Amino acid sequence: MVDVLDRVDQKLLDELKENARENIASLSKKLGVPRTTVHYRIKKLLEEGIIEKFTIKPNYKKLNLGTTAFILARYDPSSGLTQKEVANRVAQVEGVYEVHIIAGEWDLLIKVRAHSAEDVGKIVVDRLREVKGLGQTVTMVSFVTVKEDI
Fold this sequence. Notes:
Strand order of the largest sheet: 2-3-1-4
Helix content: 25-40%
Strand content: 15-25%
Number of helices: 5
CATH architecture of the largest domain: 2-Layer Sandwich
Shape: elongated
Number of strands: 4
């Protein structure tokens, strides 16, 4: 497999992942390349779709959403919906932060955030299980997040 990024692009991407607000002059100094090169490289990474957007990483505990859970779900093909349509409906549910169509015994992996395990239960029982095309679920509450990239 051919590397998509050279050393400078990779270091630039790493720096931006750490702090997307870092200014070009500071990035230039850290990377040891001219400011015009940093500006050009960022523009190129955006144009090529390697950087899709600049964003923030919220502190979910401070937002009163400190409980993270992962839900494995089965797709119900008798619903008349495609698996992707069901995944898109799940993605619209309040409290859902990620939806992945996966291989294996389960069809979907859903990440939710809530104030408490009780609130996770409300999301699952009152919202997710009401989504047409979503079958059996298994919920796993996370004790602690060791690594989570944005």
